[in-house]
């Protein structure tokens, strides 16, 4: 088994605000990430795939297929979007990087087998970097 | 004369939309940067200063003073803000990186001599990187 | 469980010299790292934490609390210091990156539960990069 | 046990072309990587080693020994070479990053114990980055 | 006037060999870059443009137009190509980064005014980075 | 004329302390950089050369000659050294990055024409980066 990791970038805005909590509690919890008009980031998303290289092609995963899946499922949904306003999942959940990583895993798993065969490469993890200082890694088996 | 460049980072959101133009023209002009709910970036701002090293200290600029000025004038205004909604200058001008760089130069020049003496270091340029692929450099003498 | 990694930087000096060994053996073992007056690095320290996102906040760890702990326990001890002369642990042990990583884990574990509750996030690992070419990763369970 | 990772760089050219497949199939499979005259990359190779720090030296691995092994076994074979034409292993296998990683593990394991003692550090994994966007990680125990 | 710099990447192979010189002289001159089967790089190309921001759009240059020009004129010619065999200009000139930069300037200037108006942004310079350690910058006025 | 910039790295320690000033003044001036036992950095030094490509070789500068000069004159003096204690120039001057850049220019100019002919490439500037956030650029004509 070999692990292949490929990185993608997108830019988006968000605001951290938990609707169950009051304004003062939100400000204490999220600090400047709770400012009312939102802010944004250049996100880097690293998708890790695990598999056995095909004996003829010498590759674990067809990169064009993976790129197509990530572009169609993730980048089309997140690129230059306001995550709170324009991504369905973040009506219910706060768009932290932890929740963004879980949503990315969910979206990829949902369409994985429309692209890759059952004995093909499997999704191992997704890591979200909100800034170059931070990374949030979600294993694929965290999400059903 | 030696040139000293120091980098700072902040995250903010913006939307590119020129109020004098119609919606269709805005979409054609700015593409995904015109999506109605805005998006955001991790900005890097590089401030370049020029001067002669002080003969005793061996330094062109006191970095603590420069940091204080940049934090007080730029980062306090931009960090985790929605540039369109929360920065006065972008009520009149579209918050492109070009205009953001000009506003940064204007803000630094306005307070420069409250911090540095007339024979001290001078501001040479400000460069804004919206993403690692792009940089927008404004000379200090562009702005009066 | 989600893994969150956050990076910090500090600059320090050190000299690799094992007191139990003679001068010639030290020179053969450590080469230029044994030069008598020491040298220094910009260190990057990556702290990895593992936990379950809180259902309300959507976060694994309160970043402000983590920053406070790392600043108070690690950066306050190492930043702009001579590790051999000014850090107690390196009176007995050579300040290699391996030992620096173990000391960082020890210091973080010692104060962890003064900041995080027993059912909160746990420390998983610390990785020290002495230069961009090297990384030394110590699991938290290496150190009692 | 501590994990030490050290990075090396080399530049080489290759062409992805599976000899068992026809020209049209190769073009469909590898796209621009199948262009007939080949192309090239600046590769980054990260070698991960695991071990217990020596109680006197405080080090898991003697970096000079590791550098000598990697230079002699890997860089001497790959640096500024055409992988298809000048590396024996790629007469039989397509020089994908997956196969390059496996060949790197094979070459390092073959000479490991001419340099490191049986109770010394062990090779854990090799990761090949063809570009900054991609990484291919091969565990040492993948290869006999 | 504001300077905008945008970076692009491509991978290609080349061999440094001056046809007017003998084999021994070529080896002495270019070292490992003269190995007979060629080698390759991930090139980064930074295109710098200078101009006055448009008063309505707030932009110096329409990035989509610039991207289209660079893709059509440069990346289509160089991406995944063997520069010696597949780029006309390098039949006569050795494909050093210096000559590659000059060819890039020549190609961009040749098509510049099919895309940008006479009073629009002008090309200032092209910088080629063969590896992260090297950059070769050619001013646009070097080439007629 | 084409500008070629090549980067080198070295690690060293220093302490900022101006002997003409008292201890309190030094502490106020240099802050943590004045701690008595010194600290250190991974320095990056970028050497910029300007010239006309040779018509046969297609190169502005022979990189092996430049590397030899930088290694022999700069890296041999600075690598893994304590700049205050082991570099002659810093007995008289504080080892700020400004002064380190001037010393680097002086050392390179002093030996330049033992390596490069009068009509060959000329040294344009040296830039010292103490950390990834800072750069100090000294023009070659600053130093006689």
Explain what this protein looks like in three dimensions.
- Chain A is 35% helix and 28% strand.
- The first copy, chain A, starts with a strand and ends in a 5-residue tail after the last strand.
- In chain A, α2 crosses α5 (97-115).
- Chain A is α+β, with helices and mostly antiparallel strands and 144 residues long.
- The model of chain A has no long low-confidence stretch (mean pLDDT 96).
- Chain A is elongated.
- Chain A has helices at 23-30, 63-78, 83-86, 89-92, 97-115, and strands at 2-14, 39-51, 122-129, 134-139.
- The A-B interface holds A 9, 11-14, 32-33, 35, 37-42, 79-82, 85-86, 130-132 and B 9, 11-14, 32-33, 35, 37-42, 79-82, 85-86, 130-132.
- β4 of chain B pairs antiparallel with β1 (2-14) of chain E, so a sheet runs across the interface.
Summary, kept brief:
Chain A is of the alpha+beta class and 144 residues long. Chain A contains five helices and four strands.
Tags for this model:
homohexamer, 144 residues, alpha+beta, four-stranded antiparallel β-sheet
Helices and strands, with pairings:
The structure is a homohexamer.
Chain A: E1 2-14, H1 23-30, E2 39-51, H2 63-78, H3 83-86, H4 89-92, H5 97-115, E3 122-129, E4 134-139
Antiparallel strand pairs in A: 1-2, 2-3, 3-4
Helix pairs in contact in A: 2-5
